[in-house]
Amino acid sequence: MIFTVLFYIFVAATVIQIIYYFYFSVFAFEKKKTQLKSNEIPVSIIILVKNEAGNLANYIQNILQQNYSNFEIVLINNASSDTTLDIIEELQNQHSNIKLVNVKNTEAFWGNKKYSLTLGIKAASHEHLLFTETNSTPISKNWINEMAFNFSKEKTIVIGYKKLKSKKHSFSNLLFRFDNIINTIQSFSFTKTGSAFTANSGNIGYTKSDFFKINGFINHLNIFIGESDLFLKDASTNKNTVTATSNASFVESSGIYSFKKWFSEKRKQSIVTSLYKFKHKFFLRLFIISKILFYPLAIYLAVLNWKIITPIIFVYFLIQYIIIGKSAYKLQEKQILFFLPILDICLLLLQITIFISTRISKPTHWK
């Protein structure tokens, strides 16, 4: 009797997981778009900086050297306490397409990133905006062109991919990259079916019209994080959002995450996730819960009756390998395939830990 009940729960969890992986195939097996030479629409690159004196001058060369003729760079100095402002002023004197927005702390918006971004967006000269960060380096000199290519009359929000920098002989780094891949597969799959819910702030584009149509970040200005995700919640529709999936549209993190930093970022993200639309929270949680049920039941039931359970486990992992493998290949992360089951289990355990940690000590806000 107990075996039968657990078996049906296991089958249900497995079916749910497989349905999700088939859904993710929307991204995994998407045909590449044919890139035609397009007219270069004017683009404003928005970059928020704070205390980046040691890095900014070198980083900005990656943007200035892009193979794109019609763009400006809006550098927002978010109340830096070092010599960042001086460096931006020097860069502005050297390059006519660099614009400075100097934000000073005010009592009402002390250190508020969204307030600073709003001032930068208002100062931008062009309708089409691309957002990146000083820790996100374009891997190609055609980054602007590849992202801007996706804008159209109908598609006014473009979601790009941010790779995490790899580190040799580091399992934790491999785990962080696997987590990033899973998040990207979910993000791109939902977006392609008209239900965008998350994007990386280091690689996203949208129009000024979309931003001001929803009064910018007004609905979540008091929440210091999640500017891209919560913008999508308000502005994205089932028709206006598209993903940029060509390799040249990727950016890569310039540093290596420590476990402490990654864990902290995931805790922050869990706060943002709680603010998603109900349908997105439901589907994301169902994916995690069904996976939590799958692994322990698979092990327990296989011990009791391996002849019945083993074929089901085999089919599950085969489908998982195909979908995640194809996606990882597209995202230039083929290495994760060699450790897929281990990474999947470890990430699941960490997600449970993060959930418990956030519930025990949930902060008022994050800066």
From TrEMBL:
<feature type="transmembrane region" description="Helical">
    <location>
        <begin position="336"/>
        <end position="357"/>
    </location>
</feature>
<keyword id="KW-1133">Transmembrane helix</keyword>
<dbReference type="Pfam" id="PF00535">
    <property type="entry name" value="Glycos_transf_2"/>
</dbReference>
<comment type="similarity">
    <text>Belongs to the glycosyltransferase 2 family.</text>
</comment>
<feature type="transmembrane region" description="Helical">
    <location>
        <begin position="282"/>
        <end position="302"/>
    </location>
</feature>
<feature type="transmembrane region" description="Helical">
    <location>
        <begin position="6"/>
        <end position="29"/>
    </location>
</feature>
<dbReference type="GO" id="GO:0016757">
    <property type="term" value="F:glycosyltransferase activity"/>
</dbReference>
<feature type="domain" description="Glycosyltransferase 2-like">
    <location>
        <begin position="44"/>
        <end position="160"/>
    </location>
</feature>
<keyword id="KW-0808">Transferase</keyword>
<dbReference type="InterPro" id="IPR001173">
    <property type="entry name" value="Glyco_trans_2-like"/>
</dbReference>
<keyword id="KW-0812">Transmembrane</keyword>
<protein>
    <submittedName>
        <fullName>Glycosyltransferase</fullName>
    </submittedName>
</protein>
<keyword id="KW-0328">Glycosyltransferase</keyword>
<keyword id="KW-0472">Membrane</keyword>
<dbReference type="InterPro" id="IPR029044">
    <property type="entry name" value="Nucleotide-diphossugar_trans"/>
</dbReference>
<feature type="transmembrane region" description="Helical">
    <location>
        <begin position="308"/>
        <end position="324"/>
    </location>
</feature>
